[in-house]
From TrEMBL:
<dbReference type="InterPro" id="IPR003346">
    <property type="entry name" value="Transposase_20"/>
</dbReference>
<dbReference type="InterPro" id="IPR002525">
    <property type="entry name" value="Transp_IS110-like_N"/>
</dbReference>
<feature type="domain" description="Transposase IS116/IS110/IS902 C-terminal">
    <location>
        <begin position="186"/>
        <end position="268"/>
    </location>
</feature>
<dbReference type="InterPro" id="IPR047650">
    <property type="entry name" value="Transpos_IS110"/>
</dbReference>
<dbReference type="GO" id="GO:0003677">
    <property type="term" value="F:DNA binding"/>
</dbReference>
<protein>
    <submittedName>
        <fullName>Mobile element protein</fullName>
    </submittedName>
</protein>
<dbReference type="Pfam" id="PF01548">
    <property type="entry name" value="DEDD_Tnp_IS110"/>
</dbReference>
<feature type="domain" description="Transposase IS110-like N-terminal">
    <location>
        <begin position="7"/>
        <end position="146"/>
    </location>
</feature>
<dbReference type="GO" id="GO:0004803">
    <property type="term" value="F:transposase activity"/>
</dbReference>
<dbReference type="Pfam" id="PF02371">
    <property type="entry name" value="Transposase_20"/>
</dbReference>
<dbReference type="GO" id="GO:0006313">
    <property type="term" value="P:DNA transposition"/>
</dbReference>
Amino acid sequence: MASEMFVGIDVASRELVISSPQGLTTITNTQAAIEAWLMGLPAGSHIGVEATSHYHELVADRAVLAGMVVYVLNPRDTRHYMLGLGRRSKTDRVDAGMIQRLILAEHAQLRPYQPAAAVHRQLALLQRRRGSVVGHRQALHKALRQIGILATVLDQTLAALDTLIAQIDQQLDTLLNSQEGLAKEARRLETVPGIGRQTSTQLVTLFKRVDLANSDAAVAFVGLDPRACDSGQKSGRRRLSKRGSAELRRLLYNCAQAAARTVAWKPYYAQLKSGKFSTTQALVIIARKLLRIAFSLWQQPGILFNAQKVACLGLTG
């Protein structure tokens, strides 16, 4: 069979638009159609798809099982790549061609996709949905809290959402406890002051799912890494890259707020605030350190958190 090919796929709920050296084609987004199409590809071919809710998972999973190398791309990256090439139109056919061109040029720098285990996928889904419900609850409270005539119905609605969140939490605990190793690791991460149940669950799911080389890779994957903006003699302001899961960043920031009030972290937080850092900057620094510590614990099975081994917490004596 011919040598490996580079293929771009624009994914929709019902169909896949495919750009390959064989030309443009469209198939239904069903297992039978996908498997029949994959049989015509050389083994080891490279396939790029955008992350599109859950609609990309079927073709990505089946392609990996068929021996293909799959890249799941951030839609923002493909959009910027297209704009950088000067493309003005946006259609499914154009998008598929851009994805094909991107992976052809950049595949050496991309991380190949690996399907998640069913329980990890369910955990991730529940975590995303929980984050969505929490966000809607906060938006409702903010939008209606000053309208007195709606106070009663608002309280009832928020109470119902709290009940829903509690039920999601219960399902998350049930799923996590069904995986004895993961549950044990999550409880170990919770020995770090500031890290709670929701964050520990997300972190062990991430660490189990993604092969991260070191703590720097973990920080970059979550999007807490500072992005340089320098040119010539100008040293621009650093901003977070904000790649990866926004929900996990939100949870880590909340953890940092909780940690800043603990005996272990309070002196360090005060030191940051007394220097050149604002409240938000200080909390982001702590959130980043919490992530690094959690990753270090994950890499050392059986080890519990010890503040005396964390250099910045030596202030506690």
